[in-house]
Structure formats: structure tokens, C-alpha cells
């Protein structure tokens, strides 16, 4: 293996501005090479912000000081293990840098692969060769907004009204209903108001595409929501970013209705395609999306180290 030094950045030794810029450049170059980013949205946001609360950044420096790899470790929520995502510069692969980064992560950390196609196959082979096995799958589904089966009209139950998210009014109510709706989801259910505001500060944020369904007689309560996303804002592809239904409203078909409201909004913007991310274990959501014409396009996987066999 080529000589490489792993530099750790955390709350005691935060990332510097130049380090952030170098890692962002490495991640961007790798994404162009691989056809997709090795880092998910939350990891990219944390990198650009230089976050250190519950986050560890690992930088792999070559002997000449050049940055050749990066990994981020995020503390798990509740009883969840830490989560890791890593990337190696395209010209520096297959010489042990990925292994060095992996060895520097906590033993119980789980590792995500978000890469598509051949790059994803290579990531899976890397994981298998190091004793990691898949434990979770995240499906990327999509459909055309201009062709294919038509989706049904939105049917909002009596007593509920549809409105858009209002910054300065709805933040706390949304955080609460999101946490309740995703209580068993290790990432989505743990979002805080700071996480929400971080996303509200992104160029793609558009309150008009953040759709809320509220009781007519209690308009500050949120029964369900569909947060859509268009990134880049001038692009042609939309995203079903998050769909959530308050637990006391689940099973009523409201999830499907609010999903359709978002599809109508994205189609009304003149977009041609839409994608979404959904956990394989969320069979109800997968069923809903399939009935609305979505099909699988990619599968992202999370890997864990094998448990040692008992004697």
C-alpha cells in the first residue's frame, strides 16, 4: 500500500476552510468519474458546514501531502450504530487507501454505498472483500412526469385543507410531526430544527413545493406533508424529498393523497421526471409508489462488519 496518513478532524480539531474546499473538490471529481456521489445529502451538508458535533472527518493524505481520500463518521441516533461514507480519489484507488480509511472508523460503524452501476458493484466488492455484508437497502425509484400511467387526482378528506409551508410559522410543528412519522427511521426521524434550517438555506429550497395538509379547524397542526425538491432549481428532474403522515392519520390513504399533490406540483412546474428514495423495509410506501407508476432505478446499500462467531 502507498504511504498514507489519516488525519482526524472532530470537535477538538475542526476542519479548516481549505480542508473543506479540498474535500469538496475531491468528492466532486469522484462523482463525475463514478456517475454519482459517494456521499449522501446529509454527509455533504455536514462537510460543507464543517460540522463537528457528532461528526468525525477522516482525511487521507499521501506522502506528498495531497488529499487522496475522505471518510465521514456520524454518530447513530438512539441505539443505532455510527454510519460511515467514504470516497477515494479516482487516480488513487486500489492501493489500500479505502482500507486505511475503513480501518480508522469505529468497529461497529456501518458503511453506505450510494454509487450507481459499475461503481456500485465495485463498492460492493470492496465491502465483501473486507468482511462486510449488506444489512439495509435504499431504493431509488422514478417515473416520467409526462409519459406513462396517469396518477389519480388528489382526494383530501373532509376537514383537511392544503397549504404551503410558511418559514417562521411551521418549523417546530414540522419537526414534531416528522419525528413522530419517522420514529423508527434512524436518519429522517432524528432531524432537528437546525437540520431543517440548514436545508431551508440551500439554493433549491422552495416553500411553494413544501406541501402541508392541515386540519381546517387547527391550521397550525400538520396531518401530513410532502416536501418536494428540485436540485438544481433550474433542472428538469424533481424529487419526492420526504412524505410523512402523522401517526394518528396513518392507514387512511392520506399518504397517497399528499404524494399526488406533490406530483401535481412538480408536473405543473414543467418538469419531465421525478425520483425518490425509499427504504426496502417500508413495504407500504414501496407499494404506494409502485401503484403510482414508480419503478426501481438504483439500489443503495448499507454494509456492516460480520459478527464474530461464538466458540
How would you describe this structure to a colleague?
With 311 residues, the chain is of the alpha+beta class. It folds into two domains: 4-130, Aminopeptidase; 143-301, 3-Layer(aba) Sandwich (Aminopeptidase). Helix content is 29%, strand content 29%. It has eight helices and twelve strands. The protein has helices spanning 17-34, 41-49, 97-103, 117-129, 171-181, 193-200, 254-268, 283-291, and strands spanning 4-9, 55-62, 67-74, 83-88, 110-113, 132-144, 160-164, 210-215, 224-229, 237-245, 273-279, 295-305. The chain has a twelve-stranded mixed sheet with strand order 1-2-3-4-5-12-6-11-10-9-8-7, sandwiched between helices. Strand 4 (83-88), helix 3 (97-103) and strand 5 (110-113) form a beta-alpha-beta unit. It is globular, with a radius of gyration of 21 Å. The relative contact order is 0.14. The model has no long low-confidence stretch (mean pLDDT 94).
Describe this protein with a few key phrases.
311 residues; alpha+beta; Aminopeptidase; 29% helix; twelve-stranded mixed β-sheet; 2 domains
Number of helices, where a helix is a run of at least 4 consecutive DSSP H or I residues: 8
CATH C-level label of the largest domain:
Alpha Beta
What fraction of the residues are assigned to beta strands by DSSP? 25-35%
- When the domains are counted, the total is 2
- Describe the largest sheet: 12 strands, mixed
**First-residue to last-residue Cα separation:** 33 Å
Give unreliable regions as ranges: none
Shape: globular
Main structural class: alpha+beta
CATH architecture label of the largest domain? 3-Layer(aba) Sandwich
Q: What spatial order of strands do you see in the largest sheet?
A: 1-2-3-4-5-12-6-11-10-9-8-7
The number of E-state strands comes to 12
Radius of gyration, in Å, reads: 21 Å
CATH superfamily of the largest domain: Gcn5-related N-acetyltransferase (GNAT)
Average pLDDT metric:
94
Per the CATH scheme, the topology name of the largest domain is Aminopeptidase
Estimate the helix proportion, in percent: 25-40%
Order of helices and strands: EHHEEEHEHEEHHEEEHEHE
Amino acid at each position: 500500500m502507498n504511504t498514507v496518513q489519516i488525519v482526524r478532524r472532530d470537535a477538538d480539531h475542526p476542519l479548516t476552510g481549505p480542508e473543506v474546499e479540498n474535500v469538496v473538490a475531491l468528492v466532486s471529481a469522484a462523482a463525475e468519474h463514478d456517475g454519482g456521489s459517494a456521499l449522501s445529502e446529509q454527509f455533504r451538508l455536514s462537510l460543507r458546514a464543517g460540522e463537528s458535533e457528532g461528526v468525525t472527518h477522516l482525511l487521507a493524505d499521501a506522502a506528498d501531502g495531497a488529499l487522496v481520500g475522505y471518510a465521514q463518521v456520524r454518530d447513530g441516533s438512539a441505539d443505532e450504530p455510527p454510519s460511515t461514507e467514504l470516497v477515494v480519489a479516482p487516480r488513487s484507488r486500489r492501493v489500500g487507501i479505502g482500507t486505511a480509511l475503513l480501518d480508522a472508523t469505529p468497529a461497529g460503524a456501518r458503511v453506505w454505498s450510494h454509487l450507481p452501476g459499475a461503481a456500485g458493484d465495485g463498492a460492493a466488492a470492496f465491502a465483501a472483500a473486507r468482511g462486510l455484508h449488506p444489512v439495509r437497502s435504499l431504493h431509488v425509484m422514478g417515473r416520467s412526469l409526462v409519459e406513462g400511467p396517469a396518477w389519480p387526482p388528489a382526494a383530501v378528506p373532509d376537514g383537511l385543507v392544503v397549504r404551503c409551508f410558511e418559514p417562521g410559522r411551521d418549523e417546530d410543528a414540522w419537526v414534531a410531526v416528522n419525528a413522530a412519522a419517522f420514529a423508527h427511521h434512524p436518519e429522517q426521524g432524528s432531524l432537528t430544527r437546525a437540520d431543517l434550517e440548514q436545508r431551508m438555506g440551500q439554493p433549491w429550497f422552495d416553500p411553494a413545493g413544501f406541501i402541508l395538509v392541515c386540519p381546517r379547524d387547527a391550521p397550525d397542526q400538520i396531518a401530513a406533508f410532502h416536501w418536494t425538491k428540485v436540485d438544481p432549481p433550474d433542472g428538469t428532474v424533481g424529487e419526492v424529498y420526504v412524505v410523512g403522515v402523522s401517526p394518528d392519520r396513518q392507514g387512511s390513504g392520506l399518504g397517497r393523497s399528499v404524494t399526488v399533490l406533490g406530483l401535481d406540483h412538480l408536473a405543473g412546474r414543467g418538469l419531465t421526471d421525478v425520483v425518490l428514495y425509499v427504504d426496502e423495509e417500508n413495504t407500504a410506501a414501496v407499494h404506494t409508489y409502485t401503484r403510482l407508476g414508480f419503478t426501481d432505478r438504483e439500489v443503495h446499500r448499507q454494509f456492516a462488519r460480520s459478527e464474530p462467531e461464538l466458540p
